[in-house]
Amino acid sequence: MIINPKEIYTKSNLLSFLRLLLVIPFWFLLDNFNIPKARYFAFALCIFAALTDILDGYLARKFNEVTELGKIVDPLADKFVVAVIIVKLYLIGIIPGYYFFMVVGRDVLIFIGGIFITKRIKRVLPSNMLGKITVINISIVILLFILRVDTTTIIFKMIYGLSIVLIFISLIGYTIRAKEFIKQKEHESI
Predict the structure, then answer these.
(1) Looking at residues 171-179, what average pLDDT do you find?
(2) DSSP letters along the chain, please?
(3) d(C-alpha 85, C-alpha 137), whole Å
(4) Distance of CA 4 to CAs 56, 67, 133, Å?
(5) pTM (two decimals)
(6) CATH code, 7-189
């Protein structure tokens, strides 16, 4: 896969790069997790990151700037921001270890699988709706942890449980989708 230098400086890619840079303030804000103001700033930054994610996809389609680089950087930025926040929340003892390993393990498996598939079929697979729904759900759980909501409520437990179910379902979905693309590529070769 060759990336055209003109593809780097699109509006949507610049927003994705900005989202990657947000990990720095997230890390330092969460160092002060016990200070409510720091948590509220982290929450606001999460909302800003989510808005840039929505906006970069919209701009890419509106200005016909969907690029191979964008297909890599956008989901990478999402995964990296979530990973940094979840690592920090785990290190400061806010989230349980099993949840940390499930979220990070899912992202690592999808990332490694994505590299394998890209090399095999010579193109980047775009994100799918199931993956986006899973990331949104995990992000909501993270936001609830950042806001220090009562984790014993039925609403929190339902959202939390749904995120765990979606982690597994999305992994299965990515695996099935990868097999379909490999099979399709093999048929094209025949």
Answers:
(1) 91
(2) ----GGGTT-HHHHHHHHHHHTHHHHHHHHHTTTSHHHHHHHHHHHHHHHHHHHHHHHHHHHTT---HHHHHHHHHHHHHHHHHHHHHHHHTTSS-HHHHHHHHHHHHHHHHHHHHHHHHHSSPPPP-HHHHHHHHHHHHHHHHHHTT--TTSHHHHHHHHHHHHHHHHHHHHHHHHHHHHHHHHHHHH-
(3) 15
(4) 19, 9, 31
(5) 0.83
(6) 1.20.120
pLDDT digits (tens, 9 = 90+) for 104-129: 999 899 889 888 888 888 877 777 88
Residue range 9-13: mean pLDDT, rounded: 88
Give percent helix, percent strand, percent coil of the chain, each to the nearest 5.
80, 0, 20
**Tokens at 128, concatenated:** 């799918």
Is 74 buried (19+), middle (13-18) or exposed (0-12) by CB count in 10 A?
Answer: buried
The contacts of residue 66 (CB under 8 Å, 6+ apart) are 12, 60
* 133 CB-near residues (< 8 Å, 6+ apart): 166, 170
Cα Rg of the chain (Å, integer): 18
Q: pLDDT band for position 144 (50/70/90)?
A: very high
Angle of the 68-91 helix axis to the 11-21 helix axis, nearest 10 = 20
CB 121 within 8 A of CB 182: yes
